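Structure first, sequence second, as always.
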């Protein structure tokens, strides 16, 4: 467990990237790349986290027998634009079919230690007025007490199954979180009905303290202290928690710095944790060679029942049983495309899903199979559409965004060169929130006609 500091580490990261780039590209070329001699030269230095990022202290008291979680979100927030409010998103309340509404309720909300009148403008949006506009650069301290019901929503990111020592709890997108984009302000994308993300959050520092009944273990975003109950994470945009009794296997990935890989398989499942460790290590090493260093000291993966595929969070991924196939490298891909380089998941879902699929395909050597997949008519030419569109066309979402995103990138040129452009994109936008224009800026360095090429797939012209 090493601590993480971004001062000197950030500079070292840049140097490593530049020194490493030639050799890294030769090794890191995608398996399908037919030109092993390609040398990736990225002069773009790796961006470092903003020093004024939010600092959270989360308290999460998980009571599986009562099917509820009691929590407290405390945050120190320093806006880079003037604002007269705070906006917390309560994604736990997003309207999924079959799940009760208002599963998360909020109790007292404080600003500067004083209780204030906050209001829900919709089920997922908590607005906290400030007394007059807060000056730019002034730190605001706020807290939100909350309670989350675990009833009747299985198979997704907020879930509880089993009881006693057989309990398995997943918590993702579960606590009130600031929806701020530096340079832009509050992000108010509407929730959708589908089981996918529409969130946008800035990277932040988190200390998460989890309470669970005796006999249960906790896996979560961050590095655990000796009690395995307090998790510290630096420069991540969200936190997820998995609870249960796990069979654990560990390993080390060189990505290129040592990354501790921890896989826990819930006691109700038969999967082999060591096999998943091998898959995660291989994917982390492959993708770090292609897209740049994995910047956190740990990657944990929890397998729990009643989940198909995987759900990504920074440093912590949730997967279901028998997901060792394409889900495992795909969720690793999200560490670069969503976790490290964030995006507005409501407006530009292809930026994380298309690119994570590209990462997966390169790790697996499956580009040919993905190029052969047919994109449905309602999705063809709609790659750049927002989640509101896919909410109306859910059956077309995967092939139109994940597959078509991969096909659009492949249309640009050699896979190794696309990887190199994505390495540039990651370096330029690390720890930030990127938009299509940022991706096109990097792609154009390698493919001058990139904007025209992407337009054919439905990415609106960006300059
Ligand atoms: Zn994905």
């Amino acid at each position: 467990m090493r601590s993480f500091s971004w001062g000197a580490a950030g500079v070292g990261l840049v140097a490593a990237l530049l020194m490493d780039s030639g050799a890294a590209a030769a090794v890191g070329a995608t398996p399908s790349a037919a030109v092993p001699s390609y040398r990736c030269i990225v002069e773009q230095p790796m961006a470092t986290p903003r020093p004024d990022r939010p600092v959270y202290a989360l308290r999460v008291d998980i009571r599986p027998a009562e099917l509820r979680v009691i929590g407290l979100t405390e945050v120190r927030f320093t806006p880079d634009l003037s604002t007269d409010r705070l906006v917390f998103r309560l994604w736990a309340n997003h309207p999924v079919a079959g799940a009760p509404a208002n599963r998360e309720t909020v109790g007292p909300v404080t600003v500067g230690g004083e209780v204030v009148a906050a209001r829900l403008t919709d089920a997922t949006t908590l607005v906290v007025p400030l007394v007059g506009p807060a000056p730019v650069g002034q730190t605001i301290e706020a807290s939100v007490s909350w309670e989350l019901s675990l009833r009747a929503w299985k198979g997704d990111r907020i879930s509880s199954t089993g009881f006693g020592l057989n309990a398995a709890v997943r918590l993702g997108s579960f606590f009130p979180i600031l929806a701020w984009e530096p340079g832009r302000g509050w992000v108010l994308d509407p929730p959708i009905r589908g089981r996918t993300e529409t969130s946008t959050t800035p990277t932040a520092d988190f200390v998460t303290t989890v309470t669970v009944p005796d006999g249960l273990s906790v896996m979560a975003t961050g590095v655990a202290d000796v009690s395995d109950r307090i998790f510290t994470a630096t420069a991540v945009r969200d936190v997820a928690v998995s609870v249960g009794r796990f069979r654990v296997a560990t390993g080390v990935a060189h990505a290129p710095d040592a990354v501790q890989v921890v896989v826990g398989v819930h006691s109700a499942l038969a999967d082999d944790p060591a096999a998943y460790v091998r898959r995660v290590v291989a994917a982390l090493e492959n993708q770090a060679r292609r897209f740049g260093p994995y910047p956190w000291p740990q990657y944990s993966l929890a397998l729990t029942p009643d989940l198909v595929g995987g759900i990504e969070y920074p440093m912590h991924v949730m997967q279901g049983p028998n997901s060792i196939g394409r889900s495992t490298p795909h969720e690793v891909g999200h560490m670069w495309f969503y976790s490290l380089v964030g995006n507005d998941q409501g407006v530009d879902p292809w930026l994380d899903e298309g690119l994570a699929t590209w990462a997966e395909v390169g790790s697996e050597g499956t580009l040919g199979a993905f190029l052969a997949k047919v994109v449905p008519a309602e999705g063809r030419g709609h790659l750049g559409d927002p989640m509101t569109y896919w909410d109306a066309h859910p059956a077309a979402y995967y092939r139109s965004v994940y597959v078509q995103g991969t096909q659009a990138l492949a249309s640009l040129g050699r896979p190794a060169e696309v990887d190199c452009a994505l390495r540039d994109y990651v370096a330029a936008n690390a720890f930030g929130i990127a938009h299509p224009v940022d991706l096109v800026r990097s792609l154009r360095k390698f493919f001058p006609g990139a904007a025209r090429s992407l337009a054919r797939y439905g990415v609106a012209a960006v300059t």
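Margin note: Residues 330, 334, 353, 356 surround zinc ion (CB under 6 Å).
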